[in-house]
Design a protein that fits this description.
The chain is α/β, with parallel strands linked by helices. Among the domains are: 255 residues, Urease, subunit C, domain 1, CATH 2.30.40.10; 88 residues, no CATH class. The chain is 34% helix and 19% strand. The strands form four sheets. Strands 1, 2, 3, 4, 5, 18, 19, 20 and 21 form a nine-stranded mixed β-sheet that branches. A six-stranded parallel β-sheet has the order 9-10-11-12-13-17, with helices on both faces. The protein has a three-stranded parallel β-sheet with strand order 6-7-8. β2 and β3 form a beta hairpin. α6 packs across α7 and α13 crosses α14. The chain is globular.
Length: 534
């Protein structure tokens, strides 16, 4: 492998320590040495890269990502590389690329409307083999989704799992972990995971813990019942004696913003008691998920998508659905806070970029915005994606300031092509850069060393990785070189498909994937299997 000498940069090692002017020597895909600038002779076979005026840090780890199947198409991982990300952890929020049965595989294939990937696997070994053939510019780790486990055993019915069904879920999870998955995820606002009980999740998290894996959860509620949901998450982590990640921690909805003090006290108290958990958060004020998941309560999804569509299309059911939305949100301006950003059907492309208020106005005839939204979900076979501006800037800053909160994109890997009907959340392109530029550099929430730890050393610690997230001899040579004063997130909600500024070089396993701000086309990334920290 090539030898590279990153010379004269301001080096942050990922531990949280302040930076220092140093040289970094990379050899055979690993960090060979970190020495004071100019103190050591440049190895004769090394390519010298002038990093003066730049920061040099471990490659960023996106601890909460999606798109593990789409990544088999987007093998250059352009949105990640442009933002300095060298590793992503996928399979979050209860959905994963395995295990699958025929029905789940068919459903997954139908959702891949904008990428060319044939889902030709059902289990972990099949996915990993397929991913290895595809290659990648970045590393990837995968969790097993609780939603997959429940769909394959209980289905989409709102009922407890039987003892036999729970045993089968545990067996499927163990098989996924043995194949290389790094833990279990849940999405307790999404069907069918939302129908799983606390005891069910403790049982499954114990399986993950037995294999050294973790439990990552999109908790059951982030708004009116936030504290109950946080309590459940902590009970699962403690009951299973398993490392945990509370995903995209937030206080959702203006009427819940006041809960920030109670939330922070509860999280700090649990950490002080030794509960082994972390949180992650994206540095934006809008969430992004399916429009029906934003608006509708769990009972609407009982029985699966066909049952949901039947309810949506039943005129007699419509008043009950609208009242359920009002009761669960309570935001008088909800229709102005929710914006459509993707659709599944080309005939509905004109809905993209419109708030629910805009959507109703576009439909005409004095239609109510909630009716317009529910009609769209039904017409689009529930494939509509939307953003919801539900969060507080002050609360975001207070959460980011907590030392156990990591920064993650909660997004799928993307390229920079603009396609009709397909937009994105800006977090897919700008998350690490926005965090460092807006909250570390400009707002001064923390030191540069600590800010970089949130993107590197802390997520590596959460995953149990000892050779990643650090610039130290023997560590995997995943490195980002950036210009601190030039960092800027250029993605917006209106024009989200835009690379950030300020990232100059990115190396994965010691090889350049971004050089002088240009993607090299190289694909040195590898799959990080459970227990594999090489």
């Amino acid at each position: 492998m090539a030898s590279v000498w990153l010379k004269g940069g301001w080096v942050y090692d990922g531990s949280g320590a302040d930076g220092r002017e140093a040289d970094v020597w990379i050899r055979d895909g690993a960090i060979a040495a970190v020495t004071p600038a100019g103190a050591a002779a440049t190895p004769g076979d090394a390519e010298v890269v002038d990093c003066r005026g730049c920061a040099v840090a471990p490659g960023f780890i996106d601890i909460h990502a999606h798109g593990e199947t789409a990544a088999l198409h987007h093998t250059l991982a352009q949105s990640r590389v442009a933002a300095g990300v060298t590793t992503e952890v996928c399979g979050n929020c209860g959905g994963s690329p395995f295990p699958l049965d025929e029905a789940l595989r068919d459903k997954g294939q139908q959702l891949l409307t904008d990428v060319r990937v044939q889902i030709d696997w059902l289990d972990g070994p099949g996915y990993f083999a397929r991913a290895e053939r595809a290659g990648s510019s970045i590393h990837r780790a995968v969790l097993v989704g609780h939603g997959n486990l429940r769909a394959m055993t209980v289905g989409y019915d709102d009922r407890p799992a039987t003892a036999d069904e729970l045993d089968r879920m545990a067996q499927l999870l163990a098989q996924g972990l043995e194949a290389g998955a790094c833990g279990l995820s849940s999405g307790l606002v999404y069907p069918p995971g939302c129908y799983g009980s606390t005891d069910e999740l403790i049982r499954l998290a114990r399986v993950a813990a037995r294999y050294g894996g973790l439990y990552a959860s999109h908790i059951r509620n982030e708004g009116d019942r936030l504290m109950d949901a946080v309590g459940e998450f902590l009970a699962i982590v403690e009951g299973a004696e398993c490392r945990g990640i509370l995903s995209h921690v937030k206080t959702a909805g203006p009427r819940n913003w006041h809960k920030i003090d109670e939330l922070i006290h509860t999280l700090r108290d649990a950490r002080d008691r030794g509960v082994p958990f972390y949180c992650d958060r994206y540095p934006y004020l809008a969430s992004w998920t399916s429009l029906d998941s934003i608006l509708l309560p769990d009972w609407v999804f009982d029985g699966g998508r066909d049952a949901e569509l039947k309810r949506l299309r039943d005129p007699a059911m419509r008043p009950k659905l609208k009242q359920a939305i009002v009761d669960s949100h309570g935001e008088p301006d909800l229709a102005d806070r929710v914006m459509v950003i993707s659709v599944g059907r080309e005939t509905l492309n004109d809905a993209v970029g419109k708030t629910l208020t805009d959507l109703a106005r576009h439909r005409g005839g004095g239609i109510d915005p909630l009716d317009a939204a529910l009609d769209l979900v039904a017409d689009d076979d529930t494939q509509t994606g939307a953003v919801h501006f539900s969060m507080s800037e002050e609360n975001l800053r207070r959460l980011l300031a907590l030392p156990f909160v990591m920064v993650a994109s909660d997004s799928s890997v993307r390229d920079f092509e603009r396609k009709p009907g397909q937009s994105a959340h800006p977090r897919a392109f700008g998350t690490p850069v926005r965090f460092l530029a807006d909250y570390v550099r400009d707002a001064g929430l923390m030191s540069w060393g600590e800010g970089i730890r949130r993107l590197t050393g802390l997520p590596a610690e959460a995953m149990g990785w000892t050779r990643r997230g650090r610039l130290a001899p023997g560590a995997v040579a995943d490195v980002v070189v950036f210009e601190p004063e030039r960092l800027a997130d250029r993605a917006t909600y209106v024009q989200p498909i835009a690379p950030p500024e300020g990232i100059r070089h990115v190396l994965v396993a010691g090889r350049f994937v971004l050089r002088d701000r240009q993607h090299t086309g190289d694909k040195p990334g590898r799959l990080i299997r459970r227990g594999d920290d090489a």
